[in-house]
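Illustration 12: Elongation factor P.
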Amino acid sequence: MANTSDIRKGLCIRYNNDIYKIVEFLHVKPGKGPAFVRTKLKSVTSGKVIDNTFSAGHKIEDVRVETRSYQFLYSEGDTYHFMNTDDYNQIALQESNLDAPDLLKEGEVVTIIFNAEDNMPLSVEMPASVILEVTHTEPGVKGNTATNATKPATVETGARINVPLFINEGDKIKVDTSNSSYLERAKE
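Figure caption equivalent — predicted structure in token form:
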């Protein structure tokens, strides 16, 4: 058993007869009244995201998990196939288990979280950032760079991301997987 002081991003807990992963949390200490923790929980079975507030000191039941590295192979509809980088065993997961499936390209190494009790995969954690090639974007207008102007671009995985005007087709960019935003032009 853990309590609210143990809450951190990525922690898996048992709540309302389901297993949830903590996506966001915020410890709040108001000037008046007791402290509490505001959380955003994602169900690892259905992918549904809920907001919940725990009062300070509330007991939570954490789930013991193991992490393993897997390489993304390919997708078939809503099913994504991964291969263990250690023993080459393959598993197939549903799209709801992935945090950012639109940023996943073939060959990418991800971390899959397994429930230690029954060895069931709970969720897939992407690396903090991925490098993707821009496949389509409109050319930037010369002289329109005084502001932080952006334009939509399509990357090799099919995701649409807003990029600065100086990015052209064929450029490789670094994308933040937590919010699908442009970080920087990738160094070749």
